[in-house]
Amino acid sequence: MANLKVIHIIPSLKIGGAERLAIEICSELNKNKSLKIVLISLSEVNDFINERYDIEIKYIPSKISLSITGKTNVEISILTKFINDFKPDIIHTHLFEAELISRWNINDKATYFTHCHDNMKQLSGLTRHKSIKKNITDLYEKNSIVKKYLTCENNFIAVSEDTKQYFSDVLPKKLAKNIHLLSNAINYKKFQRNNIKKANTLRLINIGSFAANKNQTFLIDVILELKKEDFLCELYLLGEGEEQQKVKNKAIINGLKNDIKFLGNVNDVEEQLWKSHLYLHTSKSESFGLTMLEAMASGVPVISLDAKGNRDYIKDGINGYIIKEEDPKLFSHKIINIIKDEKLYKKLSDNGQETAKRYDIKNYTKKLMKLYKESISSTN
Question: What is the pTM of this model?
């Protein structure tokens, strides 16, 4: 199939795993001369502006504010016109905000894909974990988008077994056949182990937005346990978010102001990893966990809590460790054991890198292209 036209749509290009992956996918697909690729951002936020990506990015501000009272606000005319003029074969969307906006006016000639970067809470229906107001809002949004999904016979790309199961549970059975497992990917070459010399002091690193689910406060307890063992180290935290000050405050209260470095969002993630000895991941749940694969590609062994999505690629004691209990003492002892055992460290490092290589973006886009073509053929 020649001259395939593909649109990717994302709410914004702020720093984040989903945003980075969308750019990487479009950049790699754009190397195929038989494709015409456009990435649409629904806002002008672009934290990747200083990075080099050979892709066409269109900024088309758009929004839909659903209202149960019938006062829904729709501002998508420019986006709709662009899509109609471009005549895409594929519309591939990232993150929930892009879902309803891109499907409000369905293009009958396009095949639609939802990239399931996370287990979209809006689709969970009524649960006791949400307030009454949130339950009502999410249920209204779910009913609205599911109707659109059924109309366009939407396809779903699940990034892990856990995410695939979630979408199988929350979507109508009619759509279950359209859920495809395609694990996320990284630019392996970008993160491939470099010969940059490790820091003299044990350097631990964590990468992620500061949100309650990311659970960085747990790392303060881990560092305190290491100090009890007279195990000197520095912890580098990359990212920003609403929970950042909470983590900082806990570090200060526990006398760790000089032991923990908050670097914020950085553009040299790979270099920060190359300098580090271990990557620590503490999320309570994770649909996949790209940062763990990036660390593995960098030759940095990973110690993680069980976030479900990381079960797909971390094999305990082979290429990293998954710790089932949220126990800082257990976590700290695992750190000490790895650092003290050079053979174990090398095994985890080498095997981690081999694992990460299998998730390279080049392999990913070949599978994605096959999925695009098969989906188009099945609807024609």
Answer: 0.90
